[in-house]
Structures are given as structure tokens and as C-alpha cells.
Design a protein that fits this description.
Elements lengths: L7 E4 L5 H12 L3 E6 L6 H9 L3 E6 L5 H15 L4 E4 L15 H11 L1 H17 L2 E6 L12 H21 L4 E7 L6 H9 L16 H13 L8 E3 L3 H13 L1
Parallel strand pairs: 1-2, 1-4, 2-3, 4-5, 5-6, 6-7
Helix pairs in contact: 1-8, 3-5, 4-6, 8-9
The structure holds NADP nicotinamide-adenine-dinucleotide phosphate.
Length: 257
């Protein structure tokens, strides 16, 4: 994206983990980053860090489970920065973990509202701006677990599989309007989510040693590249950290900037 002053990119769940690292990479690459978190104040430390490194960053509260929060965050972004160029739908939860019959239905439904309805909320709220600008980018953070059931992860695998289809639906309906939507699979990354998985003891992923996990910077670089460069030939598809050619492109971009 070639936007004067850098594109404006909104990241959900930017207070920690992969979202915070995606925000750092975006800031380094010259984007104006809108950091969002479900609780007010949670992104302040990351915002201060970005500002100290010379990046432009603002914070907004956004619980992605709420359509009102999504609308308010998008409206505040457009008020503050005059535009919105990309959304990174990063916020997500892996719990409830447990064999299907052992999970609490209310907790399962609440997690769907975050992992699947959440990205829909942000896209729904941003579409009028994207369509008016005749361009916009969406990066939906998915996972290899979208294609592969794992014991104890019925909510996680089901919602992420739904997210893959949401990416394709947005591509089908809005590519002609200039909206490019990507799925992105970060691989097993060393964040709080993997701490939760390890503590659960459920399935083989919980036994992957911490030192085998990816440092967040590796997947985050690719997510930032997708949000800012938006390669048209990859729109509507799932992009993976395991794709060496993709990683090389993102790396070359990061080194050249
Ligand atoms: N780590 C991995 O190995 C891995 C692998 C594949 C895919 N992913 C995906 O990568 C994304 C980021 O995960 P992570 O590893 O960075 O996990 P994490 O460290 O647990 O961070 C999750 C983030 O999502 C936020 N969040 C949760 N519910 C929210 C809500 N209702 N509204 C707004 N924000 C909410 C959390 O905010 P709070 O601080 O308020 O809880 C936190 O910022 C997720 O979509 C995950 O599924 C991760």
C-alpha cells in the first residue's frame, strides 16, 4: 500500500503475544498502528514502546466479541487518522480446551463470539470505509488446526475453520471493490496461548517443548508484510509461516525498508 504518511493499520489483541509483535513490525515498517485491546489501558505500554522507537501509534479499546466496540474502534480510527487501510484480526482464544462433552456450552459459544464472530465484526465495521476508499486489507490470523482436528480443541479448530471460509467469503464478495483478505497461519509460536496449551496437557501440542516454538517476530513479520504489501495473487488464500518462499519475501521486505 502506498499511502502518504504510511498506511493506517488496526490490530486486535495488540496488548501482548503475537498481536503486540505484529504492531512492532508494522510500526518499524512505517505504518500508523492502531493498537486495540479488550480492556482500556492494556495497550499503553506497547504504544509507548512504539512511540519511543519513532513509530506512530494510537490506542483504542475493542472487545472483538462486541459489534459496538468494533464500530467504535473503526470510527475512532477514521476520526483520528482520516482513514483505515488494514485490519489484522489477531485476537483469539484457545479455551475452552477439553473433550467436547466436557466443555461448558456457554464458554464454547462465548469463544465462537471471539474467534469467528470477532473478525466478522471488525470486517463489517470497516467495510464502508474500505469500499469508500476503494481499497482495504484484512489479515485473519488462523492456524493449521483449521484443517486438522485435535483432541480437546473442538472450539478452536471449528472457529478457525470457519475463519478460513470467512476469508474466502470476503474475497468472493469484496475483491472487486478493492478489499484484499488473507488468512495467515503463524505456526506454533512462543506466546501466552502456548503456555495455556502446555498447562492443559491435552493432545500432542501441549508436549511441544517451549524451545521448539517460534519467536513471535518470525510470524509477525509475515503478517505485517501481508497487511502492508497486500500481494494481490495471495488474496483469499491461507498464507503460512511454513511457506519458505513467503517468509523470504517478507524478510526481504523487512530488510529493505
Ligand atoms: N501462539 C501460537 O502458537 C498460535 C498458533 C496459531 C495461531 N495463533 C493465533 O494467533 C493469534 C494470537 O495468539 P497469541 O498466540 O498471541 O495468543 P495470546 O498470547 O493468548 O494473545 C491473545 C490476544 O487476544 C486477545 N483477546 C482475547 N479475547 C479477546 C477479545 N474478546 N477482544 C479483544 N482481544 C481479545 C488477548 O487479550 P487479553 O490480554 O485481554 O486476554 C490477547 O491480546 C490468535 O488468533 C491465535 O489463535 C497462535
Amino acid at each position: 500500500l502506498n499511502v502518504d504518511g504510511g498506511p493506517v493499520v488496526l490490530v486486535t489483541g495488540a496488548n501482548r503475544g503475537l498481536g503486540a509483535e505484529i504492531a512492532r513490525q508494522l510500526g518499524r515498517a512505517g505504518a500508523t498502528v492502531v493498537l486495540t485491546s479488550r480492556r482500556a489501558g492494556d495497550c499503553d505500554a506497547v504504544a509507548r514502546e512504539l512511540a519511543a522507537a519513532g513509530a506512530r501509534a494510537t490506542v483504542e479499546r475493542c472487545d472483538v466479541a462486541s459489534i459496538d466496540d468494533a464500530r467504535d474502534a473503526v470510527a475512532a480510527t477514521v476520526r483520528t487518522h482520516g482513514r483505515l487501510d488494514a485490519i489484522v484480526n489477531n485476537a483469539g482464544v484457545v479455551e475452552p480446551i477439553g473433550r467436547l462433552g466436557d466443555t461448558d456450552p456457554a464458554a464454547w459459544a462465548a469463544a465462537v463470539q471471539i474467534n469467528l464472530t470477532g473478525p466478522y465484526h471488525l470486517i463489517h465495521a470497516a467495510l464502508p470505509t474500505f469500499v469508500a476508499q476503494k481499497r482495504g486489507v484484512v489479515v485473519n490470523v488462523s492456524t493449521g488446526a483449521a484443517d486438522r482436528p485435535r483432541e480437546g480443541w473442538s472450539m478452536y479448530c471449528s472457529t478457525k475453520a470457519g475463519l478460513v471460509m470467512l476469508t474466502r467469503a470476503v474475497d468472493l464478495e469484496y475483491r472487486d471493490a478493492g478489499v484484499l483478505c488473507y488468512g495467515f497461519r503463524p505456526g506454533m509460536t512462543d506466546t501466552g496461548m502456548q503456555d495455556v496449551i502446555r498447562a492443559s496437557g491435552m493432545n500432542e501440542v501441549s508436549r511441544v517443548p517451549k524451545e521448539k516454538l517460534l519467536p513471535p517476530a518470525r510470524p509477525a513479520r509475515i503478517a505485517a508484510w501481508l497487511a502492508m504489501v497486500a500481494p494481490p495473487e495471495l488474496a483469499g488464500t491461507e498464507c503460512s509461516v511454513q511457506d519458505a518462499a513467503l517468509e523470504a519475501r517478507a524478510q526481504a521486505w523487512a530488510e529493505g525498508r
